[in-house]
Amino acid sequence: MTWAVDLIKGLGITRGIILLFLVGLWILATLATSLPLTGLFADCLIRTGMNGVLVLALVPAVRAGVGLNFGIPLGIVCGLFGMVTLMDMNIRGYSSLFGAMVLGGGIGALAGFLYARLLERVKGQEMMVGIYVGFAAVAGASIYWLVAPVKNPELVWPLGGAGLRNTLVLADYYSQYLDKLGAIPFGTGYIPTGLLAFWLGMCGLLALFLKTKMGTALTAAGANERFAEASGINVTRMRTIGVILSTVLGAIGIVIYSQSYGFVQLYKGPLLMAFPTVAALLIGGATVRNATITHVIIGTFLFQSVLTTSLPVVNEIVAKGGSEFGNIPEIARLIISNGIILYALTRKESA
């Protein structure tokens, strides 16, 4: 068991325990269920790439000293605007996919600037205010979805011909385009090469930015505000850039999430997406004042893999046991997902 102890020490207690729990789930799936391990692992990779950019979006805000950006639904709403606009114009394929990223990112840059102005007025309370900003953005967008001047009949309610549907289907637009791009068959599933490559590419671009002069100044402003000001760094400007980058990446992240999921979820869909996103980053080893690309990669994989693996395993075991309580898997999902989020939030100072 020496290797296990060394592994936990290398990863940290939090990540080591969760990794051992994940390995235990894989072993349980192999021994106690008929679920193929290759399929489960492939699903873990898909979910990791699917949520990766959203977790990455938190890094600029943390590095700029704003803290964990619970206002990420603001960026998500901007991405939804981009997707709906391109779909209403009946643009399909990669043009629609990347067009939605560009349009959503542009709207996100403007929204991020306004959001940063607000956060400057509430210094020290950014995370609490961010939660309310996210909720307000989702509520405001929900009103817009009801009155949006959309003409595409695939998007509006069939009765009345007005108001966007709760869920928009991407099958004829760009559903799983990145997932299937260069996909490698792996047992009963596949490795989403294109999706993972895009995510890792975004991670690489952000890592390169953080090594530039502006990125170094942004990190310095977040690490020690007084020292940064004494060095001639405009702290307010750096914080604004961090929030804008976070919001833009949030807009791009929801486009990637939706194309992998195959649907666009409007109205209350983005309402609580900040919490699992923040939890994944914290599980990866980040704190309120420090987050790295490594934290993003490790945290996203661990968090999404535990959720992806545990639910079908519990469902299979319950089905084999002949339980009459059909809602046990749903209860297990709530316990596991919220339990991990709660545990991650308790580790916000040190992981």
Describe this structure in words.
It is found in: Cell membrane. There is one protein chain. The protein is mainly alpha-helical and 351 residues long. It has one domain (15-22, 37-346): Orthogonal Bundle (ABC transporter involved in vitamin B12 uptake, BtuC), CATH 1.10.3470. Helices cover 70% and strands 3% of the residues. The chain contains 15 helices and 4 strands. It has helices at 2-11, 13-32, 37-56, 58-63, 72-88, 94-120, 126-147, 177-180, 193-210, 213-223, 225-230, 235-261, 274-283, 293-320, 328-346; strands at 167-169, 184-186, 189-191, 263-265. The strands form 2 sheets. The chain has a two-stranded antiparallel sheet. Strands 2-3 form a two-stranded antiparallel sheet. Strand 2 and strand 3 (189-191) form a beta hairpin. Helix 5 packs antiparallel against helix 6 (94-120). The longest helix has 28 residues, at 293-320. The mean pLDDT is 86.
Distinctive features:
351 residues, mainly alpha, ABC transporter involved in vitamin B12 uptake, BtuC, two-stranded antiparallel ribbon, 4 strands, 70% helix, globular, ABC_transp_permease, transmembrane
Strand and helix map with partners:
Elements: H1 2-11, H2 13-32, H3 37-56, H4 58-63, H5 72-88, H6 94-120, H7 126-147, E1 167-169, H8 177-180, E2 184-186, E3 189-191, H9 193-210, H10 213-223, H11 225-230, H12 235-261, E4 263-265, H13 274-283, H14 293-320, H15 328-346
Antiparallel strand pairs: 1-4, 2-3
Pfam families: BPD_transp_2 (PF02653)
Membrane topology: Multi-pass membrane protein
InterPro entries: ABC_transp_permease (IPR001851)
